[in-house]
Every structure is written in structure tokens, then in C-alpha cells.
Write a structure and sequence with these properties.
There is one protein chain. With 305 residues, the chain is an alpha/beta fold. It has one domain: TIM Barrel (Alpha-Beta Barrel). Helix content is 40%, strand content 13%. The longest helix is centred in the first third of the chain and has 19 residues. Bound molecules: the ligand O=c1ccn([C@@H]2O[C@H](COP(=O)(O)O)[C@@H](O)[C@H]2O)c(=O)[nH]1.
Length: 305
């Protein structure tokens, strides 16, 4: 199978799961048996130890959720924060997740002029073992900044469309002279550009990010776009729930994955999993991932297997 988007579809079907587990190692939320809290008092001096702790944390999480999720999404900000050891940790995490059969969506929101975008694409998407399968991008520079991420049909790009954050509407909801909002214009642009990269699934390797925290907009965008696959972040910690993401899927329950990062990574901190204790954070993460998978399948009227 050639296309990234078809690989993602197949993994979703294989696991009957529409979740995406974020790998967002917020250091201040880590269990103490993994990361000594004193490390945070002088992180600059302790980056190596912190990165080693994050790698162990991630590997245990991956082991706990590998059969439940088609894809993981490392958020680059948390690895960049740890400088060189952090980047090593990121690549080791990616290699580990790949060994476990997971697809990797790197959340870096990269982009630039065409020649620089090409360098980003080569840095993060080129290669088999030590490379992501897809990356989040900012579409604001237009097509020459996007096309380098789509050159290899085995790789995909997820462009920011209508984001989940509270100030998303400040720019994205502005009205253009033709009556469309900025995000509606971006949506049309992505569908048009992505039509050259359609897989057998009917979806394009050029996908989009649409937040769970704006269900009305999510519904309208799904109605507008029939060949653009969605990453839907904002589930759990940001307040989005199963009812909010339903309209992001097509009538067959296809066309999207829903991300949760803190809600799964740090589930051990929730009252419902408190009995497990911080040392069993991976078990808590597994329980939270199972619950999310089930809630999404239920709201889409899909069987739970
Ligand atoms: O619109 C967007 C785009 C990206 N994100 C990223 O997704 C995760 C969400 O983390 P939670 O802990 O589940 O809130 C995080 O990496 C964001 O940078 C997003 O939330 N919204």
C-alpha cells in the first residue's frame, strides 16, 4: 500500500480504533518514580536525566496502548525543550513506536518558504526507521510551503484548519470579501490542493487539524470537505467529549482520528484511576485509552471489539 492516508485507514480498521495518543511529556505532571522532582529545579543542568526519564515514560506508555491506537502524536515542543538529549529522546521514541507497529504523526506545525519547507520535510519525513509518517503543518504560506511535505506518497501532512484553542477565532473566523471565513477559505484551498494526493480510501494525504472544542464549526467543515481527513485534538483535557467529535466523521464513521494527550499520558492523576497509584501510570493510561476508544465507537454507532 502506497499512500500514507490508506495506511492510516487500514490501521484504524485493524484496531477498530479512532483515537490518536499524544506523547506530550509535561515534566511537571510526570510520576515521581519516573522523574525526580528535584530535576525541575535546574533543568538546564539535568536535561540528559530528564530526557532519559521521558524515554522510559514514553516506552511504557507505548507498550500500554499499542494495541489500542493506530497512531501516536509526539508533540515536538516538549522534546525541543530538552535540547539535544530531548531530540535524541524524540527519535528513540519514534523508533520504538514504529517497532510496535504504530504510525507516527509528528506535531511540529512546521512550514516556511518552499526551499526551507523542503528541508523540514527531509528532516522529519525522509527515511523509514527514524522518520515520522506525517507531520502537522501551518498552511499560511500557501502551496509552495505545503507541497514539499507531500512529495513522498507514503507520507502525509496535517494542515491547521480550525484549531482547538480559545483564541482560534481571532483570525480564523475573520470574514473575507466573498463572505467566507478565513477557515472556510483554507478548507476549500486544502481540498483543492489535496485532490492531487487522493488514496484508495477516498481521502487525501493532505489532511487537516480541526478542534473538538468547536463542534459547530467541525460539523460545518465536514459538510464542506469530503476528501480531507481530520485530526481532531481537544478531547479530554481541553473539554471536548465524544458528542463533540461525532460530526467530524463521515456517515460510515471514517475520515478522522481524535487526539488526547494529557488525558491519557497523565490519567493516573485523575480521581477515577487514583487507586492505581502513580507507579502504575501506564495501566491508568491504558484504561483511559480504552474508555476513549469505546466512547468514540459508541457515539458513532460502531461495534466495540
Ligand atoms: O488545534 C490544535 C492543534 C494541536 N493541538 C495539540 O494537540 C495536543 C492536545 O493535547 P491535550 O493534552 O490533549 O490537550 C497538544 O500537543 C497540542 O499542542 C491542539 O491541542 N489543538
Amino acid at each position: 500500500m502506497k499512500y500514507f492516508i490508506d495506511q492510516l485507514h487500514n490501521k484504524i480498521e485493524e484496531k477498530n480504533s479512532r483515537i490518536c495518543v499524544g506523547l506530550d511529556p509535561h515534566l511537571n505532571l510526570m510520576p515521581e518514580n519516573i522523574l525526580r522532582p528535584e530535576i525541575l529545579d535546574n533543568l538546564e543542568a539535568n536535561r540528559k536525566e530528564a530526557a532519559a526519564a521521558v524515554l522510559k515514560f514514553n516506552q511504557n506508555l507505548i507498550d500500554a496502548v499499542a494495541d489500542l491506537t493506530p497512531v501516536v502524536k509526539p508533540q515536538m515542543a516538549f522534546y525541543e525543550k530538552l535540547a539535544v538529549p530531548g531530540m535524541e529522546c524524540l527519535w528513540q521514541t519514534i523508533a520504538y513506536a514504529k517497532e510496535k507497529g504504530l504510525l507516527i504523526l509528528l506535531d511540529g506545525k512546521r512550514n516556511d518558504i518552499g526551499s526551507t519547507a523542503k528541508a523540514y520535510a527531509e528532516s522529519y519525513l525522509e527515511g523509514e526507521k527514524i522518520a515520522a509518517d506525517a507531520i502537522t503543518i501551518n498552511p499560511y504560506l500557501g502551496s509552495d510551503g505545503i507541497l514539499p511535505f507531500l512529495e513522498n506518497e507514503k507520507k502525509g501532512a496535517f494542515a491547521l484548519l480550525r484549531t482547538s484553542n480559545s483564541s482560534a477565532g481571532e483570525l480564523q473566523d475573520l470574514k473575507l470579501a466573498d463572505g467566507r471565513t478565513v477557515y472556510q477559505a483554507v478548507a476549500d484551498f486544502l481540498q483543492e490542493l489535496g485532490s492531487q494526493y487522493l488514496g484508495e480510501s477516498g481521502y487525501s494525504n493532505l489532511a487537516a487539524v480541526v478542534g473538538a472544542t468547536y463542534p459547530k464549526e467541525l460539523k460545518a467543515i465536514r459538510a464542506q470537505l469530503d476528501s480531507v481527513f481530520f485530526l481532531i485534538p481537544g478531547f479530554g483535557a481541553q473539554g471536548g467529549g465524544a458528542a463533540d467529535i461525532k460530526a467530524g466523521f463521515d456517515k460510515n464513521g471514517r475520515g478522522a482520528v481524535v487526539n488526547s494527550s494529557r488525558g491519557i499520558n497523565f490519567a493516573y492523576r485523575k480521581a477515577e484511576y487514583a487507586d492505581l497509584g502513580p507507579e502504575n501510570y501506564a495501566q491508568a493510561a491504558r484504561a483511559a485509552a480504552q474508555k476513549m476508544k469505546k466512547e468514540i465507537n459508541n457515539v458513532l454507532n460502531l461495534p466495540n471489539t
